[in-house]
Specification:
The protein has one domain: TIM Barrel (Alpha-Beta Barrel), CATH 3.20.20. The protein is 46% helix and 15% strand. It has helices at 16-29, 44-54, 80-85, 96-101, 106-118, 131-135, 139-154, 156-159, 180-195, 199-204, 215-222, 239-251, and strands spanning 4-9, 36-41, 59-63, 90-93, 122-127, 163-166, 207-210, 229-232. The structure holds 1,3-dihydroxyacetonephosphate. 1,3-dihydroxyacetonephosphate (13P) is lined by residues 9, 95, 167, 172-173, 210-213, 231-235.
């Protein structure tokens, strides 16, 4: 059966002391029962030491961004091979904050996805529409463009080596969550777009939901047939909430389409 996945995106939060407490509480409380994979994405400076602390544990490690380039004169950038070198398994690409604030266009996102694949990292491709786009009724065409730009750049077989995260921009950090029906509809649409390239890949690809995911809305979202897990921002900084979200997925039977 397809594995489910919950990733905590810590964004630009924390310090050595708070990270240590967060990690300790997570590792004590995390049961990782059932068919669930869990990972955390701390900020760059803390990745290497957290990688050491996670050795032999079931919680995986990811980064929040990477350079599309392999190496060289790119001051301030971090390459896929560096992330792999220190023990990352995942890397977020195309998070809406990167798209909105740091100029990550669909093409740049596709290049970053390719750079991750080349180093055998698992890229987590974030896609999502703004509230204006939703109101204008163009959510599905925005999703189609964001996903097909990557497929055309890396090929469908390489898309299958990553994960897709649907994060409606209007639901990120706002406390406003997509309803289970809204999220399911977009996840289904993404699977249909991918299915036009390869149906088997569309069925098997993990597509996870992010955007104000909390313990009290997790179960309703995770019962949806096309939602394979969660990408958690704010609630991943609170160990009890993050663990409760992970528990919600392990106790929620997968919905049927
Ligand atoms: P919040 O859970 O804080 O809304 O953030 C979601 C997110 O952006 C995860 O990548």
């Amino acid at each position: 059966m397809k594995q489910r996945l919950v990733i905590g995106n810590w964004k630009m939060n924390g310090d050595q002391q708070t990270n240590e407490m967060l990690l300790k509480d997570l590792l004590v409380g995390m049961t990782n029962g059932g068919n669930l994979e869990v990972a955390i994405c701390p900020p760059f400076p803390y990745l290497a030491s957290i990688a050491t602390q996670l050795q032999g544990r079931t919680v995986g490690l990811g980064a929040q961004n990477l350079s599309p380039a392999t190496h060289g004169a790119f001051t301030g950038e971090v390459s896929a091979s560096m992330l792999r070198d220190i023990g990352c398994r995942y890397v977020l690409v195309g998070h809406s904050e990167r798209r909105a604030l740091f100029g990550d266009t669909d093409d740049v996102v596709a290049q970053k996805f390719a750079a991750a694949i080349a180093q055998e990292l698992v890229p987590v491709l974030c896609v999502g529409e703004t509230m204006d786009e939703r109101r204008a009724g163009i959510t599905t065409s925005v999703m189609t463009k964001q996903i097909t730009t990557v497929i055309k750049h890396v090929g469908i077989e390489n898309l299958a080596r990553g994960v897709v995260a649907y994060e409606p921009v209007w639901a990120i950090g706002t406390g406003e969550t997509a309803s289970p029906d809204q999220a399911q509809a977009v996840h289904r649409h993404l699977r249909e777009v991918i299915g036009a390239f390869d149906e088997r890949i569309a069925r098997n690809l993990q597509i996870i939901y992010g955007g104000s995911l909390k313990p009290d809305n997790a179960q309703a979202l995770f019962t949806q047939p096309d939602i394979d897990g969660g990408l958690v921002g704010g609630a991943s900084l609170d160990p009890a909430s993050f663990i409760a979200i992970c528990d919600a997925i392990t106790t929620t039977p997968r919905g049927t389409a």
